[in-house]
Structure formats: structure tokens, C-alpha cells
Write a structure and sequence with these properties.
The complex is a heterotrimer of chains A (about 350), B (about 400) and C (about 300). With about 350 residues, chain A is an all-alpha fold. Chain A contains 16 helices and two strands.
Chain lengths: ~350, ~400, ~300
């Protein structure tokens, strides 16, 4: 069993299996494509939350802000490139707006790019403001920002205010649209994972871990902490913004409080998924997100009326009794699986507690 | 502890459940699907709709079900909880269609949810008869499989504006001197009602002096009421689902405002008379349906009989008035039955054509769909709370009582 | 916006009315915030279920009112019932959270909040409820200024309760033990104080205070199972602004919150009411940040 996770063959096999499953599953179960799209989005949520929450020790409750910002940015670009936004979103209903194939996809491509850029810029600006806050104040402050932005957007008539915005309809065969959005979300999840895998192995990963372990000392060692924190947040914002842009198109309709800036659903779910899977690990968020999503979908189907009670209990139990998460638990039980990194992992787990 | 065996058992049970829920469709039943708000901010109204669906299904099944080609089919509804959020609605519709094999849909509650679900049903060419999504913007998208039994939202308070203009003329006032205060919740439904009201105000030439929007988690309207104290409008129009109606009624009395005319939506579902007694006197309430109207059909009887039967069979309505949300939900199921029998087949495209040719009289009112899918045969009525009763006062063709003006 | 400001200055009685109203409802906010400050300060638990305790208290009072029991008697029952629930929740969950990092309590209490909301929905239904006493308001200046008796009662009750809790904290053995634990739990334990008992007492007391506040709210507003969050948010804003352990500041901030909310909604429009409340939190945090960094520079 020694270090199976570390042998290159096993690793290659693992990645190949996941890739193959990602491609084959929607073909085998085309009826579940929508749910699987959301599942990959959950993976992106968990992975990006863990950059700050797990690796850097900054527990944000407001990351969902970038999800909504990306959604609105792409919506404004996709519509605004071809029609008058105010007329498109007017409460009286406007007319019928058609988008041709090329309009739709050029709009979407431009929208995604803008969404990503806007979110990174917002992360840099907001980072200046919030990174001085410590501990619970950081969590509350970020939560407050996401909430207040949701409220403000719902008074902004140009983007439909509280009415929300219907996105352009997919121009081609409507059955294929779901595969298009599935592929986008899947590719995004893979890219996020691959990027973070590289990032955590680099000097940057060590630096943000140092911030988590002791920010003052890290500062003393000459790490420019604010710069690292801002870059880490921008990375999370970049991927979340694109996730929001895809989701806005996938869902076809969004409005500010429940869909774009849902602080009390997706915003909290991303934290829970990471805790469930194991904070501060690369695989933990992925496992947590997939497990959480499956549990949620099953309870939503078979426990009608009680599903939220079940979810609440799951939250309490995870948080109170299962802090180490699945990856933490496996690491504690089977340290040899992680081969030569066993000392380091043990050390890190010890620090977390 | 995590046991592989128990996990596999759980998987097996889960898949068995999935299989059985699909199999349930195979017998002589017609499975309708609906994502409805059982939790979240629309849970109250969502429950009204669900009761309406269930009541109609029970009633139709008891009367022998749906007869297609000499064979009887029982109706059954598969529900999911959309949590009152459009983020879930679309996905659940997709799940109903793909995983539960639903071929015919009943609508969700609220315009926002219907907006999220309509593109999905359209995509799969699934006929949807909805009863709770009134936004006009649903019917200018060219949807072919969407049918709504209710009147669209711009009509909700149109008769209130017309009434205000009439009263002004009768009292020798120019419409331009009539000051109107508006307070609408910042959500798709209320904003759509507001757009209709503003169009009507322009048409009649009234003057808007206050135009406030209410937050979704509304608790207190003191700020709006204070503006009313300062500017003394002649008409106050409120729409914010049931909490808006309740809060406005309460605070108008508490702040001792004297407004000659107050019109609102959702009086019945807010249970204004039961909660606020005399305080609620004189409020004008827009309604899709009233139990005092003279509509009737062979299935449910007259509107009054429908009302009485709900009160008898569903204990929760014994002491409060039956909201129109419930009646129109029942009507939607009835429309399905009628269309199935006329099309004589379970084929959903034939059913769609039959639906679009619908022309029927029901306890809920006449139902005839325009090309866009909205019901154009049934008017909205305006009722006033008089001595604890809801009496129809406008439009004139349906009025059973005279308008009390000014209020108090 | 300018029109609204103009009204405020041209008819000062209206402005006065809003300020009085803001102070009255601010009293209730201060009560809820005081409970939060207590658990936060003593046991370092940030209770996101605060608002849901409030709503449960409102439901208890409303339910009793349905049996003809006047809220004046219903509120003590709500106080007692929530005390019991607080104790149960402490024993089941909170006692395991105290030792963990700061973030854990936020998430755990969020989970509790969800369970409570759903249970209330199942038990009481999702309808908006309220206790409408339909009392005649006092009108002054040709009804330009109105004072609502229910709000006045609520305000007075809130003050009475606050005074009672404060004198309890000052005078009684338990109150002293609580304050000692807040200052230094380890030292308190060395001195023979059963901190476990102090914690369970504090958390139960907070739940009970929320329950009573909920009873007051049931008389002045409509409530439904999912509205608790807005009261939690207000409590967090007030406590963050006032700081822990400073009771006078908590009360002042609570009253101020009420005034800002009412006048802010008047000037900017009611749709900004929530945004003002939460925006205030952001502003308070940032101002504190700037102040503390300035202080740090001075020390350096």
C-alpha cells in the first residue's frame, strides 16, 4: 500500500478515470445533465473557497459576491452588445429579442472575459478594504458586503432591479444546450483544479500557508502578506466570476437576491462542502462538494418538507463533530497512503486543530 | 462510521426508489408535475396552490377521472419543493420531465418561478397550464406550450385606477388633481403590477406623488406612511404579497392616516379581516376570483359551492376566506381534464392544440387562451371589505355592492 | 431623495415622529443585541440563530394569544420556553463549539437556524402571523405625530427587562460569575467557578431574552418562520458597532439603529431599508479598521 497516491501510474489512472467519467456520465445519464452541471459548479465553489478558507486561514462568507458579479457582468455584456439594456429589462415586458447563433456566442465569449476581468478588479479593490479585518470580523464583513450588493443591485433598474434578468435563449437545438453548459462547467472545474494543484505546489502555496499559520511571523519573514492575500482572492474571484457567468446562461433567468447573491444558500454551502471534505487539502473540497451535492439531491427528492431540516442537521453534525473532514479523517486513519508526505500532513493537521 | 456495506445498501435502496417512482407512471394514471414553493418566502401562497391542485385532482378522480377514448385515467401530481427560488425552479422542472417522466406540467407559484420554468417546458415541448404566474413578460416571449388561466398582472389594479378617476369626476375634481401614492414590493410580480398601474395612471391622467418600493423582507412601512402624512394622497396603491397587505393595513390605522381610497393585492391570503377586524374596513382588494360571482361548471358547481366545499374538506380554511390562488390552481387542473378529453389522446402535441382551443366556462370564470397563452376571457374584479365581508364593487358589470367612499 | 429631505425639514413634526418611532423599535433591537453581546463576550459564540430564537418567541406568544392569553402574560412564558430550548441547544451543540475556532460557532448556529426555521414552518405554517391588539394610537398635532401604544409597551418592557438583567449581572452571585468568566475563564475556573454552568446559564439567558423580544415583536409586526435573519443581522450590526462588554454602548447603538433605519428609509426609499442596515455594518467595520490601524501607527 505504500504511497499509492504518489506513484505516477496510479495518479495518471485516477485523473484519466475522472476525466473519462466527466465526459461519459452525461452521455450515459443524459437526464441528469442539469444536476451534474450544478455538481461541477459546486466543485468550483468549494475549491475556490478553500484557497482563502483552507490554505490561507481567512474564512470568507462573502465569496458568493463574485459569483453574482460575474453573472451580472456577462448578462449586461451579452445583451448590451446587441440591444438597449434598459428596454430589454423594462418592467412592462418589452418585446421579443432574438439572438442569432453568432451573436449569442460572440456575446457569451465577450461576456465571460469581461466577467472574469471585472471580478478580478473587484477582488483587488475589495481586498484593500477587507483584509485588515481579522477572524470573525472578516467573515461578517465579507458576508455584509455580499448582502448589501445584492440589495443594491435589486434597486438598479437598468439590470431589471428586483425583477431580475432573463438571458438570451440558446439559438440552436434546445436539447444540446444542456450539454454545452455541462461541458463549460466541467472544463471550468478541471481548469480550477489543475491550476490550484500547480499553485499549492509552488512558492505561492507555501506563502499563503505561512499566512494561515502565523501572519505576523510571515510578515516578519519578509512575505508581503497583503499582496499575497489580494492575489489569492483574485484567483478565487476569477474562477467564481466565470462560474457565475456560465450559471446565468445555464439557468436562463436570474435575479439579485435568490440567484445571483444567495448568501444563505450557495454562499454557506461552499463553506460546508469544504468542511465536509476536509479543509486545507486539494482533494477535500472536491470530495466534499460531490458528496454534499448528492446528499442534497437525494434528500430533496425523498424527504419532501423535511429536506431543510436534514440539511441543517448535516451542517451542525459536520461542524461540531466532524471538523477534520473526510480527507482529514482518511489522513489520520491511513497516513501511509500519502507516502513520504506523511510527516508533513500530520504536522499540518496538528496545526489545524 | 462509514461502512462500505451500508453505503451500498443505501445506494440500492435509492435506486429502487427511483425505479418505483418511474414505474408509478405506467398504470392508468396521468402524471402531472409541479415544482411548488413549500418552503421559503412564497410558502404560504405555494401551499394555497398545492391545496387547489390536490382538491381538483381528488374531485376529478372521484367523478371518474379523465376519459380518453372510452378509458378512464386517474390524475396524479408529482411535487418538488422549489424553495421559492428561481435558482431551483428550472432544475426541478428538468428533473420532473427527465427523471420522473412527467409529460404535462402544472405551474409553480409566482411570476419569477414561472419565468425560470417556462423556458424548460418550452424546450421539451411540455404543455404547462399555470395558475399563479401573472407577469406580462411571460406572454411576449412567443412561448407555445405555456397557458395561464389567470388574468395578467397589469389588470390587477387597473380597475382601481379607473375607479379613482371616476370617483374624482363624480365629485367634480379633475383627474389631474388626484394624487396617487404607490408602494410596490421589489419582486417580479409586484413590479409588473406596478408597470400596469403606471400605464393606467398615465391613461387617466392622475398624478403620482409617492413611488416607493418595498424590500422583500418587509416588516415596517413607517417611512412610506410618513410620506403619506406629508403629501396626503387621495389614492394609495400597495402590492407586496400578503405581508405587504397586512403591514399596510395595520400601519395605516396605527399612524392614523385618512386616505379616501386604498387598493391592494393579496387581501385574502393575508387574512386581513380575520387578523385586523374593523381596521381592515374599506380596503379595496384586487382579486382574480370571488366566491360571490355567478360562474359555474358541472364539476365543481358554482363558485359559492366550490368555496363551501373547500371550507368543509380542508380544515385550515374553515375560519378564513378561500384565496383565489387556490381556486385558480383547481381551475388549471380542470383545464387539463377538459383538454385531454377533447384531444382524445395522451399525445402532448395534440394536447397542446386542444389546450390552445380551450373555450370553457368554469366556476373560476371563462377560460379562453390568446395566441400568447394568457386567458383573455376572464376579468379581474375589485372587492371592498364592508362589514367584514368582501363585496364586489368594480367593474360595474360584476358589482354587487356600491363603493364606500371615502374610506372612514 | 431631495424632495424627501425637504419634507423632513419643512415639517419637523414628522421628523420627530420618525425619530420617536425609531427609538421605540430600537429598544427591541437593543434587547436582542444585548443577548448577542452576552454570549459573544462571555463564551465567544457568535449566534446566527439569534433572530430565529426571536421568531420562536413570537410564535409562542402568538400561539398563547390564540387561546385568549394576553401577550403580557404570554411573554414570560416565551421567556421560560426559550430558556429551556437554549439550555437544550447548549448541551447538544454549543458546549462542543466553544473550544473550537471562531468560525465554527457561526456555522453551527447557522445550521441550528435552518433547523429552527423549518420546524417552525412545519408546526405553525408559513402564513404571516401577528397579534393585532388594534389599540387606538395617541395622536398629536392633528395626527401628524402618532405614537403607537403597542410600540410604547414594547419599548417599556424592553427597558424593564434590560434593567432587570443588568442588575442581576451586577448584584447576584451568578452575574458576578458570568462577568468573571467573561474576563478570564481560566482564572475563573481556578477561583472555583463552574464555567460550564456559567456557559449554559448564559446561553439559556440569551435565548430567553430573545424569546421575550420576540413576544414584543409579535405585537408590532407581522412575522413568518423565515424572517429571523433580519433580526440576527441587526443584532450583529449593533454589537459590532458598540463593542462587547459595553452595555450602555449597546443600548445607544440599538436606539440609533432604529432611528437610522426609519429616517434612512424615508430619505432613500423603503427599498433601501435592508441595504442601509447591512451597509451600516460594513461602514462600522471599516471605520473601526481605520481607527485601529491609526492607533497602531501611533504606538509604533
Amino acid at each position: 500500500m505504500n504511497s499509492i497516491m504518489n506513484s505516477p501510474v496510479a495518479k495518471f489512472a485516477l485523473y484519466a478515470t475522472i476525466l473519462a467519467l466527466g465526459i461519459l456520465l452525461p452521455m450515459w445519464f443524459p437526464n441528469y445533465t442539469g444536476q451534474m452541471t450544478v455538481m461541477w459548479m459546486m466543485v468550483v465553489f468549494a475549491l475556490t473557497w478553500d484557497i482563502l478558507g483552507g490554505q490561507m486561514g481567512y474564512n470568507s462568507l462573502g465569496n458568493i459576491f463574485f459569483f453574482g458579479a460575474g453573472m451580472y457582468a456577462t448578462g449586461m455584456v451579452q445583451v448590451g452588445m446587441f440591444y438597449d439594456l434598459a428596454e430589454y429589462n423594462s418592467a412592462a415586458g418589452g418585446g421579443i429579442f432574438n439572438f442569432t447563433f453568432s451573436q449569442y456566442f460572440t456575446g457569451m465569449a465577450a461576456g465571460f472575459v469581461v466577467a472574469a476581468i471585472v471580478c478580478v478588479i473587484l477582488a483587488v479593490i475589495l481586498g484593500r478594504l477587507v483584509f485588515g479585518l481579522r477572524g470573525p470580523y472578516f467573515a461578517i464583513g465579507t458576508l455584509a458586503i455580499a448582502t448589501v450588493v445584492g440589495e443594491l443591485v435589486s434597486t438598479w433598474e437598468l439590470v431589471g432591479g428586483g425583477q431580475g434578468m432573463s438571458m438570451p435563449n440558446y439559438p440552436g437545438d434546445l436539447g444540446e444546450a444542456k450539454f454545452v453548459f455541462y461541458s463549460m462547467m466541467f472544463v471550468l472545474a478541471i481548469c480550477t483544479f489543475a491550476f490550484l494543484r500547480w499553485l499549492y505546489g509552488s512558492r505561492f502555496g507555501l506563502a499563503i500557508n505561512a499566512i494561515r499559520d502565523d501572519e505576523e511571523k510571515a510578515e516578519g519573514m519578509g512575505i508581503h502578506t497583503l499582496r499575497y492575500k489580494t492575489v489569492a482572492w483574485s484567483i478565487a474571484a476569477f474562477f467564481l466570476g466565470i462560474a457565475g457567468a456560465i450559471y446565468g446562461n445555464f439557468n436562463n433567468f436570474f435575479e439579485p437576491i435568490d440567484v445571483a447573491f444567495p448568501t444563505t444558500t450557495f454562499g454557506i454551502f461552499m463553506v460546508l462542502m469544504v468542511l465536509l471534505g476536509g479543509k486545507g487539502t486539494l482533494w477535500g473540497p472536491v470530495i466534499g462538494a460531490i458528496l454534499f451535492h448528492v446528499i442534497k439531491e437525494v434528500t430533496w427528492t425523498y424527504l419532501l418538507n423535511l429536506q431543510w431540516v436534514a440539511l441543517g442537521l448535516l451542517i451542525v453534525v459536520t461542524v461540531v463533530y466532524f471538523q477534520e473532514g473526510i480527507m482529514g479523517w482518511i489522513m489520520r486513519k491511513k497516513p501511509t497512503w500519502f507516502g513520504i508526505r506523511v510527516e508533513g500532513e500530520k504536522q499540518r493537521l496538528g496545526d489545524m486543530r | 462510521m462509514f461502512h462500505y456495506r451500508t453505503f451500498m445498501k443505501a445506494v440500492a435502496v435509492t435506486s429502487a426508489l427511483v425505479a418505483s417512482s418511474v414505474a408509478a407512471n405506467a398504470a392508468d394514471t396521468i402524471l402531472l408535475g409541479s415544482a411548488i414553493s413549500l418552503t421559503g418566502k412564497y410558502a404560504t401562497a405555494g401551499n394555497h396552490a398545492k391545496v387547489g391542485y390536490d382538491f381538483a385532482v381528488k374531485k376529478i378522480n372521484a367523478a371518474g377521472g379523465v376519459k380518453i377514448g372510452g378509458k378512464s385515467y386517474m390524475l396524479e401530481v408529482k411535487y418538488y419543493d422549489d424553495e421559492s427560488t428561481p435558482a431551483r425552479g428550472g432544475q426541478l422542472a428538468e428533473r420532473l420531465i427527465n427523471q420522473d417522466g412527467v409529460q404535462y406540467m402544472l405551474g409553480p407559484y409566482s411570476s419569477g418561478l414561472t419565468k425560470a420554468i417556462a423556458p424548460v417546458t418550452e424546450k421539451y415541448k411540455i404543455p404547462m397550464v399555470e395558475a399563479e404566474g401573472a407577469s406580462r413578460s411571460l406572454f411576449n416571449k412567443g412561448y407555445k406550450y405555456l397557458f395561464a388561466v389567470l388574468s395578467t398582472s397589469e389588470q390587477y389594479l387597473a380597475s382601481a385606477v379607473a375607479l379613482a378617476a371616476d370617483v374624482a369626476k363624480a365629485n367634480g375634481k379633475k383627474p389631474g388633481d388626484v394624487k396617487v401614492a404607490l408602494a410596490f414590493e421589489n419582486d417580479p410580480f409586484s413590479l409588473d403590477v406596478r408597470a400596469g398601474v403606471i400605464d393606467d395612471i398615465k391613461k387617466h391622467g392622475l398624478k403620482i406623488v409617492i413611488d416607493d418600493k418595498l424590500p422583500r423582507n418587509l416588516t415596517d412601512m413607517t417611512a412610506t406612511m410618513t410620506k403619506i402624512k406629508a403629501l396626503k394622497p387621495d389614492v394609495f396603491i400597495v402590492s407586496g404579497h400578503s405581508k405587504g397587505a397586512g403591514t399596510a393595513t395595520r400601519q395605516i390605522a396605527e399612524m392614523k392616516l385618512s386616505i379616501p381610497m386604498v387598493a391592494m393585492t393579496h387581501c385574502e391570503s393575508a387574512n386581513l379581516v380575520g387578523k385586523y377586524k374593523e381596521t381592515a374596513e374599506g380596503m379595496l382588494c384586487a382579486t382574480q376570483w370571488a366566491e360571490t360571482l355567478t360562474y359555474k361548471d358541472p364539476m365543481f358547481g358554482t363558485a359559492a359551492e366550490f368555496n363551501a366545499e373547500i371550507k368543509k374538506t380542508v380544515p385550515e380554511y374553515a375560519n378564513k376566506s378561500v384565496p383565489y390562488q387556490l381556486a385558480q390552481a383547481a381551475a388549471a387542473v380542470y383545464v387539463f381534464k377538459d383538454a385531454f378529453e377533447r384531444s382524445g389522446s395522451l399525445d402532448k402535441d395534440k394536447l397542446r392544440d386542444a389546450l390552445s382551443a380551450t373555450n370553457m366556462k368554469t366556476f373560476y370564470g371563462d377560460i379562453k387562451f390568446s395566441a400568447a397563452g394568457n386567458n383573455t376571457a376572464k376579468p379581474m374584479v375589485l372587492r371592498q371589505i364592508q362589514n367584514g365581508k368582501y363585496n364586489v364593487v368594480a367593474p360595474t358589470a360584476f358589482a354587487s355592492h356600491k363603493l364606500d367612499w371615502p374610506r372612514k | 431623495m431631495w424632495d424627501n429631505l425637504q419634507i423632513m425639514f419643512s415639517i419637523p413634526v414628522l421628523t420627530l415622529g420618525m425619530i420617536i418611532d425609531g427609538l421605540l423599535i430600537g429598544g427591541i433591537f437593543a434587547l436582542i443585541a444585548y443577548g448577542l453581546a452576552l454570549v459573544w463576550g462571555v463564551m465567544n459564540v457568535k449566534n446566527l440563530a439569534q433572530g430565529d430564537f426571536v421568531i420562536l418567541g413570537a410564535y409562542v406568544t402568538w400561539w398563547l394569544y390564540g387561546y385568549g392569553i394576553n401577550p403580557i402574560f404570554g411573554i414570560p412564558v416565551a421567556f421560560a420556553a426559550l430558556w429551556g430550548l437554549g439550555w437544550i441547544i447548549y448541551k447538544l451543540v454549543i458546549c462542543r463549539v466553544i473550544e473550537h475556532d471562531l468560525f465554527t460557532s457561526l456555522l453551527a448556529t447557522f445550521g441550528i437556524a435552518i433547523v429552527m426555521q423549518q420546524t417552525m414552518k412545519i408546526v405553525f405554517g408559513a402564513d404571516e402571523q401577528t397579534i393585532a391588539l388594534n389599540l387606538e394610537s395617541f395622536g398629536f398635532f392633528d395626527n401628524l405625530l402618532t405614537i403607537q401604544p403597542t410600540r410604547l409597551i414594547a419599548f417599556i418592557s424592553a427597558i424593564v427587562l434590560a434593567v432587570a438583567v443588568i442588575s442581576f449581572m451586577k448584584r447576584s452571585r451568578m452575574g458576578q460569575a458570568i462577568r468573571a468568566t467573561a474576563q478570564n475563564p481560566r482564572a475563573a475556573r481556578v477561583m472555583g467557578i463552574d464555567t460550564e454552568k456559567v456557559y449554559s446559564f448564559t446561553f439559556s439567558l440569551n435565548a430567553a431574552i430573545c424569546g421575550a423580544a420576540g413576544g414584543l415583536i409579535s405585537m408590532i409586526w407581522e412575522f413568518q418562520p423565515f424572517i429571523g435573519l433580519i433580526y440576527s443581522i441587526r443584532a450583529f450590526v449593533i454589537v459590532t458597532a458598540a463593542g462587547l462588554g459595553n452595555l450602555a454602548a449597546v443600548i445607544a447603538a440599538g436606539l440609533g439603529m432604529g432611528v437610522v433605519e426609519q429616517t434612512g428609509a424615508f430619505v432613500f426609499g423603503t427599498e433601501y431599508q435592508q441595504a442601509i442596515v447591512v451597509g451600516l455594518l460594513v461602514v462600522v467595520l471599516l471605520v473601526k479598521l481605520v481607527l485601529s490601524s491609526r492607533r497602531r501607527q501611533v504606538v509604533e
